[in-house]
Write a structure and sequence with these properties.
Blueprint: H1 12-16, H2 23-45, E1 66-73, E2 95-98, H3 99-109, H4 111-116, H5 121-125, H6 132-137, H7 141-151, E3 153-155, H8 173-195, H9 199-216, H10 222-242, H11 252-256, H12 265-275, H13 293-306, H14 317-337, H15 343-347, H16 351-374, H17 378-399, H18 410-439, E4 466-470, E5 473-477, E6 492-498
Parallel strand pairs: 1-6, 2-3
Antiparallel strand pairs: 4-5, 5-6
Length: 500
């Protein structure tokens, strides 16, 4: 997958030709041009990092609040044996093998499907699960067999070239494919089984879908984790549909046995932290001496040479000069106050070195703060990430930058990575309600305290899910997250009734 468009090279040769400009002005212009490059380079960096959410995942992970939908559930008691149903293969069922090979090969084996059916997946995925077009026009069995084979493999080694420089240019053609086939394709296949009330096959499909999502998350890139949760979200959509089908089994225990995370998020955060530095071929470890003007000029030039995306509207000369002056002032102040660089030391450094080091140091600090926030309990983590976002916005506003190299709202990525766990607990609560209805002649509980099964808390707020009963209809809502605008929350509200 390549998200870069036509080449855009803000080369230093253009600036060097400005012979009439004195040295300070030229340095200022260099900084400004470099900063333009850096901002767009960050767009390329997100090809393999969390900021891809703005394009690839926006529709799935960060959609508008899913509120006010009616859900007609069927009464269903939990199974007598809690492990009777699983939504991921048991470890004892797994066999040795590399699932990534199977998942990548299946696309090449199904050329007819790729040419004739694959282009319709997006449109078919928008239809109701029992629409005749889904049943008649979508044939996915060959893909399903391959994905089921992969689902029962123990590991998935994607063999990304992690030592490549620039690291941000590692291509991820498999990511979009897995989102399309393991996410939407499997959702349609499961919908076909739900429409025909083949519940056992539908549950096996859910198991395959979630196992493939787990395989997708076995990479060091945050963007792959977000895609994995997009696939898992499609599986949870199918779980919700299953709850409305006659004689469908209760998934209370099966949902409760799912892991909090499908992959190693801590590892992905560590790779995200080094993404920027490992995307600059001229930046060695340890860094060059701060006074090595030529070395830092090469590092700055990497930003320009690295670009493959055009800037839509480059700044005018006056605006660019003003921005570069603000950046140099901010960089000098930061290195002086925070890094404790002396005036003598700063005087020996070029403006390029000052600004480049400033940006890299800020990136290190922001990444460290984000990683530390993830280690906190979830409500505190969100609060801390909101504070980090506020500090980033204030820094951007102080220099009036048109863009920023930092992920400006890291709390959004956090919500995306924890949406799965939140939805699992929410659906588990609905299953506890279905169990109650089965034991009380189809009636809904007056409160969640009436349920005989333990009711999970909302993990993002550590509070109960909100429940009200009025006129035979229950409303179950995810609580609002403090500090996050309601329209930005991954919140669900269901108006629940019990089918006769």
């Amino acid at each position: 997958m390549s998200v870069c468009g036509h080449p855009c090279r803000w080369g230093y040769e253009l600036l060097i030709r400005i012979g009439a400009i004195d040295l300070p002005q030229r340095a200022s212009e260099i900084i400004e041009r470099w900063e333009h490059d850096y901002m767009v380079v960050r767009v390329c960096i997100i090809v393999v990092s969390s900021a891809l959410l703005s394009s690839l995942l926006a529709a799935d992970i960060y959609s508008a609040p899913d509120t006010g939908l009616r859900l007609v559930i069927t009464a269903s008691s939990v199974p007598r044996r809690p492990t009777e149903i699983r939504l991921l293969p048991a470890d004892t069922e797994l066999e040795d093998g590399n699932a990534a090979v199977v998942l990548l090969r299946m696309i090449w084996e199904q050329q007819h499907f790729m040419q004739n059916v694959a282009p319709q997946i997006d449109d078919l995925a928008q239809l109701p699960f029992d629409d005749p077009k889904v049943a008649n026009d979508f044939h996915f069995d060959n893909f399903y067999r391959q994905m089921r084979h992969a689902a029962y493999m123990r590991d998935a080694k994607w063999e990304y070239p992690l030592n490549q420089r620039p690291l941000s240019m590692v291509l991820l053609p498999d990511v979009q494919g897995m989102r399309q086939f393991a996410g939407r394709g499997m959702k349609l296949w499961i919908n076909q089984r739900l429409a025909s009330q083949d519940h056992l096959d539908a549950i096996e499909g859910l198991r395959v879908q979630l196992a493939c999502a787990r395989h997708v998350s076995k990479t060091p890139f945050l963007v792959s984790h977000l895609v994995a949760y997009s696939v898992a979200d499609a599986a949870l959509d199918n779980c919700e549909t299953l709850m409305s089908r006659p004689r469908s089994p209760n998934l209370y225990y099966a949902l409760g046995m799912l892991p909090e995370h499908l992959g190693d998020v801590a590892s992905a955060l560590q790779w995200e932290a080094v993404m920027l530095e490992r995307s600059l071929p001229s930046l060695d470890s340890p860094w060059p001496d701060y006074e090595d003007a030529e070395a830092w000029e090469r590092v700055a030039a990497d930003f320009s040479q690295f670009m493959e995306m055009e800037l839509a509207e480059p700044l005018g000369a006056i605006e660019a000069a003003e921005l570069s002056a603000r950046m140099l002032a901010a960089a000098t102040g930061y290195l002086s106050k925070v890094m404790e660089f002396s005036a003598t030391k700063l005087a020996k450094m070029t403006p390029q070195a000052i600004v480049t080091i400033w940006v890299l140091e800020l990136n290190r600090m922001v990444q460290a703060e984000v990683e530390a926030a993830y280690a906190l309990p979830q409500p505190q983590a969100i609060a801390q990430l909101l504070e980090i976002s506020k500090a980033i916005e204030e820094r951007v506003a102080s220099i009036k930058a048109p863009a920023t190299p930092f992920l400006r709202q890291p709390w959004r990525t956090y919500l995306g990575l924890n949406r799965f766990q939140r939805r699992v607990k929410y659906l588990q609560t609905i299953e506890a309600i279905r169990d109650y209805a089965a034991k009380h002649e189809g009636k809904l509980p007056s409160s969640l305290a009436d349920l005989s099964l333990p009711v999970p808390h909302d993990p993002l707020t550590s509070t109960d899910f909100e429940y009200q009963l009025a006129d035979g209809q229950a409303t179950l809502a995810m609580p609002l997250i403090a500090g996050v605008e309601p329209e930005a929350q991954t919140r669900q509200i269901r108006q629940i009734t019990v089918a006769p």
